[in-house]
């Protein structure tokens, strides 16, 4: 049940600088589930301060914080 899967991550890109990797799946923002890329965009736009992405990487769940 993949939500937003990260594709190719370019070296030194914003995605790479926060620690995202190819194949990561973003399933939530600030502990709220998202269902599609539009919801991801809305949640990121709504949060101006710190954003915590809930990321599924393989069998692990982790949080990647964006400041």
Structural class: alpha+beta
Q: How much of the polypeptide forms β-strand, as a percent range? A: 25-35%
Query: Count of DSSP E strands?
Result: 5
Instruction: Give helix % range.
Output: 10-25%
Q: How many strands, what sense, and barrel or not for the largest sheet?
A: 5 strands, antiparallel
The general outline is globular
- Calculate Rg over CA atoms: 11 Å
Q: What is the string of SSEs from the N terminus onward?
A: EHEEHEE
* Annotation field: number of helices: 2
The overall pLDDT, averaged over residues, is 91
Q: Are there runs of 5+ residues with pLDDT below 50, and where? A: none
Give the termini distance in whole angstroms: 28 Å
Could you please describe the fold and organization of this structure?
With 67 residues, this protein is an alpha+beta fold. The protein is built from two helices and five strands; from the N terminus they run E-H-E-E-H-E-E. It has helices spanning 14-18, 37-46; strands at 4-5, 25-29, 32-33, 51-57, 60-66. Strands 1, 2, 3, 4 and 5 form a five-stranded antiparallel beta sheet that branches. A hairpin with a 2-residue loop joins strand 4 and strand 5. The longest helix has 10 residues, at 37-46. It is globular, with a radius of gyration of 11 Å.
Task: Describe this protein with a few key phrases.
globular, five-stranded antiparallel β-sheet, 2 helices, alpha+beta, 67 residues, 34% strand
Summarize the structure.
The chain is of the alpha+beta class.
Strand and helix layout:
Elements: E1 4-5, H1 14-18, E2 25-29, E3 32-33, H2 37-46, E4 51-57, E5 60-66
């Amino acid at each position: 049940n993949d939500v937003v899967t990260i594709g190719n991550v370019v070296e030194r890109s914003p995605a790479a600088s926060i620690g995202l990797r190819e194949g990561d799946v973003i399933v939530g923002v600030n502990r709220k589930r998202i269902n599609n890329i539009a919801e991801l965009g809305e949640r990121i736009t709504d949060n101006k301060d710190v954003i915590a992405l809930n990321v599924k990487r393989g069998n692990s769940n982790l949080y990647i914080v964006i400041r």
